[in-house]
C-alpha cells in the first residue's frame, strides 16, 4: 500500500492498495496503520466505521461537521462513486479548493479527508457501497450541509441527481454556511 498526497487539498491523501489477483479474484489490504502513520495520521484516532449503499445517480452531500470537525477515511468497496472534497479550513493553504476523485471497488483506493473539509459523492453504478472510518463519534447536532449545486463551487456532477435526502436537497449555499460559521 502506498500513500499519495492530494495537492489540491492540504493534508488529504489517497491510499492505494497493492491487490493480489488470480483466478479466484483478488485480495488486498485496505488499511495499514504503519502506512497511515507514515504520513502523520494517527491510525488509532478512528473510532467508528459505517457503510452506505447507494444506487446509480444517488447523491449524498456535501457534508461536514461543526466544532472540531471530523477526519474520515472513505473507500468505495463495491461499485464506483464520484467523490468530492471541499477544503473549508480558513487557515489552510488550499482553502475553498475542490478536488474530485473516482473511487471504485476495483481499485479499493481509500481517500483520507482532513477535519474541516466538506465531503459528498454520487453513485456511478447500479449499486455502490461506500465505507467510512471517522475519528469522532457521530453527533447529528453538529451536522452541516452545503448545497451540492452551489454555483460558487461549480462541481460538475457526472450524472443527474436521481435521489437525495431532503436535508441535502434543502441545503444552504456555501456563502450562507460560511456566514453562519462566522456568527
Question: Can you tell me about this structure?
Answer:
There is one protein chain. The protein contains three helices and 13 strands. The protein is mainly beta. A six-stranded antiparallel β-sheet has the order 1-2-10-7-12-5, with no helix packed on it. Strands 9-8-11-6-13 form a five-stranded antiparallel β-sheet, with no helix packed on it. Strands 3-4 form a two-stranded antiparallel sheet. 32% of the residues are buried.
Number of strands: 13
Share of β-strand residues: 35-45%
**In sequence order, what are the helices and strands, one letter per element?**
EEEEHEEEEEEEEEHH
Unreliable stretches covering 5 or more consecutive residues: none
Give me the Rg, rounded.
16 Å
End-to-end span in angstroms?
Answer: 43 Å
* Main beta-sheet strand count, sense and barrel state: 6 strands, antiparallel
List the total number of helices. Answer: 3
Task: Describe the structure in brief.
With 183 residues, this protein is mainly beta. The protein is built from 3 helices and 13 strands; from the N terminus they run ββββαβββββββββαα.
Can you give keywords for this protein?
183 residues, 39% strand, single chain, globular, mainly beta, 3 helices, six-stranded antiparallel sheet, five-stranded antiparallel sheet
Explain the layout of strands and helices.
Layout: E1 2-5, E2 13-16, E3 20-22, E4 25-27, H1 33-38, E5 48-54, E6 59-65, E7 72-78, E8 80-87, E9 98-104, E10 110-113, E11 117-123, E12 128-134, E13 143-145, H2 166-169, H3 174-182
Antiparallel strand pairs: 1-2, 2-10, 3-4, 5-12, 6-11, 6-13, 7-10, 7-12, 8-9, 8-11
Amino acid at each position: 500500500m502506498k500513500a499519495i498526497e492530494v495537492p489540491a487539498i492540504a493534508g488529504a491523501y489517497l491510499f492505494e492498495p497493492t491487490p493480489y489477483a488470480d483466478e479466484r479474484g483478488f485480495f488486498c489490504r485496505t488499511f495499514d496503520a504503519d502506512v497511515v502513520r507514515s504520513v502523520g495520521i494517527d491510525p488509532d484516532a478512528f473510532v467508528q466505521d459505517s457503510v452506505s449503499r447507494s444506487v446509480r445517480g444517488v447523491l449524498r452531500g456535501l457534508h461536514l461537521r461543526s466544532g472540531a470537525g471530523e477526519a474520515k477515511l472513505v473507500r468505495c468497496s463495491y461499485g464506483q462513486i464520484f467523490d468530492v472534497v471541499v477544503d473549508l479550513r480558513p487557515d489552510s493553504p488550499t482553502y475553498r479548493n475542490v478536488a474530485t476523485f473516482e473511487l471504485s471497488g476495483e481499485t479499493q483506493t481509500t481517500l483520507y479527508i482532513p477535519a474541516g473539509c466538506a465531503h459528498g459523492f454520487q453513485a456511478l453504478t447500479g449499486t455502490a457501497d461506500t465505507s467510512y472510518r471517522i475519528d469522532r463519534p457521530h453527533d447529528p447536532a453538529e451536522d452541516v450541509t452545503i448545497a451540492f449545486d452551489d454555483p460558487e463551487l461549480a462541481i460538475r456532477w457526472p450524472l443527474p441527481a436521481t435521489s437525495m435526502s431532503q436535508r441535502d436537497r434543502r441545503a444552504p449555499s456555501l456563502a450562507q454556511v460560511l456566514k453562519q460559521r462566522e456568527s
